[in-house]
């Protein structure tokens, strides 16, 4: 099975631009949704896991609009990511799929599962979902993202990357350089600034309060599908008090916490994460 970047790369035209993705494997559909952050992409999130999951599933790694790969669209990145997931499934004729989401991708997966429950058969989240209960908000990782969004530099990128992991040896020069190259893409930085720039971040908080809208996590009782919440015990981007509310509100949820592991569970606890997630998805 070819699970290389070039061998899996695909694109599909939609009424709101081209969506790019990676595809491998046969079986039931599994949609993999990436997180936010500096120089992020779906391929970089899941390239190390694709081969294992493709042994059992027809895997689709979607590249969200505005992160330098798929065509950008107007709107807040989290909102456009959710609509792009539905648009992608419609374009490929995928009626329902298991969904895996890292951080922001998990938030997108939760929102799709709440709004279109018939489209999500099972849900796996990797950090990201829920509110800070005991930990500071914004978290250490989010503050580092704000610093970079306001005034980008390579040193700030390195500090944020090192905050993502328990084992800093994972932050190689190659990983730093590929993230830095993408971070210099104007569209990619525009998206990062819209999510984490100081002015934009404060405006979003004010808008939510002024609109009187309930936070998405308060409505997670609407998630009907079986849900696996996965977390790194040493996550400094989304600290491990955050899954307490989703674990309580989602009717059929379970939580697995990986020790000596930061925010990138699928990278840092790769083998254990794949084993536990496959058991859940194949159950």
Q: What's the name of the CATH homologous superfamily? A: Alpha/Beta hydrolase fold, catalytic domain
Query: Any idea what the CATH architecture is?
Result: 3-Layer(aba) Sandwich
* Shape field: globular
pLDDT averaged residue by residue = 95
Distance between the termini: 24 Å
Classified by CATH, the class is Alpha Beta
Compressed to H and E, one letter per element, the order equals HEEEHHEHEHEHHHHHEHEHH
Q: What percentage of the residues does DSSP assign to strands (E)? A: 15-25%
Work out the helix count. 13
Percent of residues in helices comes to 40-55%
How many distinct folded domains?
A: 1
Strand tally, please?
Answer: 8
Structural class: alpha/beta
Major beta-sheet overview: 8 strands, mixed
Strand order of the largest sheet: 1-2-4-3-5-6-7-8
For this structure, the CATH topology is Rossmann fold
Keywords: Hydrolase
Protein name: Alpha/beta fold hydrolase
InterPro entries: AB_hydrolase_1, AB_hydrolase_fold, AB_hydrolase_sf
GO molecular function: hydrolase activity
Describe the structure.
The protein has helices at residues 5-8, 42-46, 50-54, 77-92, 104-115, 140-150, 154-163, 173-183, 186-196, 198-211, 244-249, 265-268, 270-282; strands at residues 9-14, 17-24, 29-33, 58-62, 97-102, 120-126, 227-232, 253-258. It is an alpha/beta fold and 283 residues long. The protein has one domain (5-134, 214-282): Alpha/Beta hydrolase fold, catalytic domain (Rossmann fold, 3-Layer(aba) Sandwich). Strands 1-2-4-3-5-6-7-8 form an eight-stranded mixed beta sheet, with helices on both faces. Helix 6 crosses helix 9 and helix 9 (186-196) crosses helix 10 (198-211). The mean pLDDT is 95.
């Amino acid at each position: 099975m070819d699970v290389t970047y070039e061998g899996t790369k695909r694109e599909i035209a939609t009424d709101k631009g081209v969506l790019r993705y990676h595809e491998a494997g046969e079986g039931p559909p599994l949609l993999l949704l990436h997180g936010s952050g500096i120089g992020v992409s779906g391929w970089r999130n899941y390239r190390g896991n694709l081969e294992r999951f493709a042994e059992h599933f027809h895997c689709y790694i979607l590249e969200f609009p505005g992160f330098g790969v798929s065509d950008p669209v107007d709107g807040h990145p989290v909102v456009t990511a959710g609509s792009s997931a539905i648009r992608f499934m419609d374009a490929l004729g995928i009626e329902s799929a298991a969904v895996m989401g890292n951080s922001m991708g998990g938030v997108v997966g939760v929102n799709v599962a709440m709004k279109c429950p018939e489209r999500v058969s099972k849900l796996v989240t990797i950090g990201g979902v829920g509110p800070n209960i005991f930990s500071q908000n914004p978290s250490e990782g989010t503050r580092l993202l704000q610093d970079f969004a306001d005034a980008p530099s390579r040193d700030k990128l390195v500090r944020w990357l090192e905050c993502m992991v328990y084992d800093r040896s994972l932050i190689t020069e190659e990983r730093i350089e590929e993230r830095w190259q993408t971070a210099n893409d104007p569209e990619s930085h525009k998206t990062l600034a819209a999510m984490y720039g100081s002015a934009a971040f404060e405006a979003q908080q004010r808008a939510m309060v002024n609109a009187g809208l309930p936070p998405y996590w308060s409505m997670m009782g609407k998630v009907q599908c079986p849900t696996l919440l996965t977390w790194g015990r040493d996550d400094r981007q989304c600290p491990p008090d955050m899954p307490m509310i989703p674990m309580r509100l989602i009717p059929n949820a379970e939580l697995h916490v990986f020790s000596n592991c930061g925010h990138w569970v699928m990278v840092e606890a790769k083998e254990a994460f794949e084993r536990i997630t496959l058991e859940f998805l194949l159950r």
